[in-house]
């Protein structure tokens, strides 16, 4: 069984395919950025792509850098997939902890808002915060 498309049908199929591919790349591009905390605590979150081959089951690896005062000071790494980012970082002495981060873009890939949840090895929530892209 073969399917024959008209010239117009082929053009529409090509446009649809290109649009879907651009949407996937657009979602990935939306992860990068500088975000400011909505809590007014002067935390600035910077997410930037790491230039290494993409993982098999993700869009790419990202450096996650938080700057500000006290609890805002940390660096981590994560793997992005569509509008989610998962990763972690290790805290410095005197309290040694592995902290896991999970970020999601609240209104899809073009959303300027993300929510980040930080948990410890036992799965206890340490911090939940929202950030807005600047």
Sheet/helix structural class: alpha+beta
Count of DSSP strands: 8
Instruction: Domain count, please report it.
Output: 1
Beta strand %: 35-45%
What is the gyration radius calculated from CA atoms?
19 Å
Q: How is the quaternary structure best described? A: single chain
Strand count, sense and barrel status of the largest sheet are: 8 strands, antiparallel, barrel
Number of helices: 1
Mean pLDDT: 77
Strand order of the largest sheet: 1-2-3-4-5-6-7-8
Distance between the ends:
53 Å
Helix and strand run: HEEEEEEEE
Percent range for helical residues?
10-25%
Walk me through the structure:
The protein is an alpha+beta fold. It has one domain. It is 19% helix and 43% strand. The protein has one helix and eight strands. An eight-stranded antiparallel barrel has the order 1-2-3-4-5-6-7-8. Strand 1 and strand 2 (44-49) form a beta hairpin.
Briefly, what is this?
With 134 residues, this protein is an alpha+beta fold. It has 1 helix and 8 strands.
Primary descriptors:
19% helix; alpha+beta; single chain; eight-stranded antiparallel beta barrel; 134 residues
